[in-house]
């Protein structure tokens, strides 16, 4: 789910950047350092604007200045039980891996419907029900997040397609029409 967060970050600036364009350098540095990163709890999608840039404080012994910047950002936090769209990145006999935007996800063979079988003779490797549903690399999927693991700089999830209205998005659109 997407949220609007008010965040704060300390940015250092080398003395060679001091001058009338220091605030511009700070904003550029903030965008480069923060956008697209993961805090372990959420992903920072984009920075909307900077609220307050504090007065610089020179760090003794190094000459660099520290600035505290308060800013608003759009963040994405995945939740357990959330239904999301993903793209399959690899398929193995144990299940498949998919990317939910920046979040990697694994769907075990135990969380795939029973009618979907592993086809080791297919090229590329795939799960299929021998009808219209095929799960292979590049397939667009709708899945449910059933677990999330957070690390310091990243997150990983486990998903399921073993419920109604989950699975290949193309196959689902054929059912509805």
Number of strands: 13
Mean pLDDT: 91
| Distance between the amino and carboxyl termini | 28 Å
Strand order of the largest sheet: 5-6-7-12-11
List keywords for this structure.
5-stranded mixed beta barrel, mainly beta, 2 helices
Topology of helices and strands:
Elements: E1 2-13, H1 22-34, E2 43-53, E3 57-58, E4 65-76, E5 83-92, E6 95-100, E7 103-108, E8 117-119, E9 126-128, E10 134-135, E11 140-150, E12 155-160, E13 167-168, H2 169-176
Parallel strand pairs: 7-12
Antiparallel strand pairs: 1-4, 2-4, 3-4, 5-6, 5-11, 6-7, 8-9, 9-10, 11-12, 11-13
Tell me what the structure shows:
The chain is mainly β and 177 residues long. Helices cover 12% and strands 49% of the residues. It is built from 2 helices and 13 strands. The protein has helices at residues 22-34, 169-176; strands at 2-13, 43-53, 57-58, 65-76, 83-92, 95-100, 103-108, 117-119, 126-128, 134-135, 140-150, 155-160, 167-168. Strands 5-6-7-12-11 form a 5-stranded mixed beta barrel. A hairpin with a 2-residue loop joins strand 6 and strand 7 (103-108). The longest helix is centred in the first third of the chain and has 13 residues, at 22-34. The chain is elongated, with a radius of gyration of 22 Å. The model has no long low-confidence stretch (mean pLDDT 91).
């Amino acid at each position: 789910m997407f949220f609007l967060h008010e965040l704060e970050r300390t940015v250092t600036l080398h003395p060679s950047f001091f001058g009338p364009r220091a605030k511009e350098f700070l904003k550029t540095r903030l965008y480069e350092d923060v956008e697209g990163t993961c805090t372990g709890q959420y992903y920072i999608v984009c920075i909307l604007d900077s609220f307050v840039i504090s007065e610089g404080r020179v760090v003794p012994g190094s000459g660099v200045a520290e600035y505290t910047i308060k800013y608003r950002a759009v963040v994405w936090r995945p939740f357990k039980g959330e239904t999301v769209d993903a793209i399959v990145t690899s398929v193995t006999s144990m299940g498949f891996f998919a990317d939910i935007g920046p979040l990697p996800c694994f769907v075990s063979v135990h969380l795939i419907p029973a009618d979907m079988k592993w086809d080791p003779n297919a090229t590329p490797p795939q799960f299929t029900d021998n009808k219209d549903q095929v799960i292979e690399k590049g397939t667009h999927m709708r899945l449910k997040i059933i677990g999330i693991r957070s690390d310091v700089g990243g997150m990983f999830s486990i998903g399921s397609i073993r419920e109604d209205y989950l699975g290949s998005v193309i196959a689902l659109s054929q059912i509805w029409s």
